Amino acid sequence: MKVEISDVGSTKRQMRVVIPREEVNAVTEEIYREVAQGVAVRGFRKGKAPRHILRTYYGDYIDGELSRKLVREKFEEAVREKDLFVVSMPEFDNAQPKENEEFSFTATFDVKPEVDPAVYTGFDLEKPRVEVSDGDVDAVIERLRQTFAEVKEVEDPAYGAAEGDYVVVNVSSESDTSLDRERMTVEAGARSAFPGLEHAVTGMKVGDTKEVEVTFGDDHFLEDKRGKTFTLKIQVLAVRNRVLPDVDDEFARMVHQGAQNVEELRKAIREDLQSRVESEARLVLERQVEEKLLEANTFDVPESMVRLQAIMMLQGMSQRLASQGVRLQDVYPDADQLRDESMASAERLVKTSLLVEAIAKKHGIEATDEDVEKEMAKLAEKYSMSVEAVKGRFEEQGRIDEMRYGILERKVYDYIIEHSKVVEVDKAREGKS
Predict the structure, then answer these.
(1) Which top CATH class is 150-243?
(2) DSSP E strands: which ranges in 180-300?
(3) Reduced to 3 states, what is the DSSP secondary structure of residue 256?
(4) Torsion of CA 311, 317, 323, 324, to 10 degrees
(5) DSSP calls for 52-80
(6) Where are the extended beta strands (E) located within 133-208?
(7) How far, in Å, are 103, 112, 301, 356 from residue 115 at the CA level?
(8) Greater confidence, 95 or 75?
(9) What is the pLDDT of residue 432?
(10) Sequence-separated (6 or more) residues with CB below 8 Å from residue 210
């Protein structure tokens, strides 16, 4: 078999394969032998039917197999022989091979680009300053108090509903009884299913009645009420307010597993916030690195690679939305815009991954099995799962390679950041240079 490769573009190749007559005959003989042994022809013992009889009954199958073995299989053999990384379905240009004749075909296909990054160090990078203040810790504790607040009914008949209280009311309408509600709960000053009730109930006491006008907006969930105004009578049945827990050792043990007192709770919150802001700062750095890598290293990538990546991204997005009961077309009704944006994002992702792989190869950076095991151990600890369960889930979803690439990318970014100039800046300055 003779193989010739020619460039027809920066990422496209054309292969011409010539298969000598002797090899064509050998493949043909193999096909006839397989057919003869696999079928029964009346008047002949199995495996003994002559070739012209087999061709009479199974000529189309024989021609199809001959084409498959001499085109598809020989193409794959040539790809391995020439060590090509094919990233698209090949387009074949050939006639039907014939028995006892030399056969040739051409195949045109995309190949993975060979990237040689010229600039990937010495960048000027800005990292947001990582700071966690006592105020940040206090804010988290306050949110925890709100979350663990106890709702109690107010017993004082003179108490007027304050903002944030829950007011239980009966609602009636003389003009539209479909608006009547019994024991409807309204959060004073915050939200209500009927626009304006959240303000009307503020200051009201148990037993109070009031008439109020409500106007339903054009986007209200009650479609038949949109744009209309109604007079409603409301009667307060109960007022409930939220009692925030004291910040004491009991509270610390309740809201954070492992914390025995307030001091330990504050320490755990600070560590969590520190980890979070450091992760955010790292993401900012990585976005800068990606941007500078792409600016400094321009090269072409096959559209087939970009299209495949875009399809994978859209499938992932669709599955995530479907798990929430939402359709992709409802979130992104403009299919053309979504396609264009997906292709642009996919091209950036493909180019970045090629650069990461090239830099890793140049400096011997690897994501080892030990690295993967450590990453799984971290996830297991974070989500209170066993390492085996984490591994099983990633294997089931076919995402081990994805994890391995993520580790490799992180190591390459570490190398780039270490060999660049990094200046800490306040968040307000971030991205302004």
Answers:
(1) alpha beta
(2) 181-187, 209-215, 229-243
(3) coil
(4) -150
(5) HHHHHHHHHHHHHHHHIIIIIIHHHHHHH
(6) 150-153, 166-172, 181-187
(7) 35, 9, 10, 10
(8) 75
(9) 52
(10) 200, 204, 233, 234
Q: Please report how the helices 51-67 and 21-38 are oriented relative to each other, as an axis angle in degrees rounded to 10.
A: 120
Per-domain residue ranges of the chain: 2-110, 150-243
What whole-number distance in Å separates Cα of residue 263 and Cα of residue 32?
83
297: tokens are: 């290293």
Q: Which CATH class is domain 2-110?
A: alpha beta
For residue 42, pLDDT over 80 is answered with no
- Geometric angle at alpha carbon 73, from 68 and 76, rounded to 5°: 140
| Cβ neighbours around 310 below 10 Å, total | 23
The type of residue at 135 is: G
**Which one-letter amino acid corresponds to residue 155?**
E
CB-based burial label for 305 (10 Å; 0-12, 13-18, 19+)? buried
Model confidence, pTM: 0.72
CA–CA gap between residue 265 and residue 271 (Å, rounded)? 10
Q: Write phi, then psi, for 115 (nearest 5 degrees).
A: -100, 130
Residues in the chain: 433
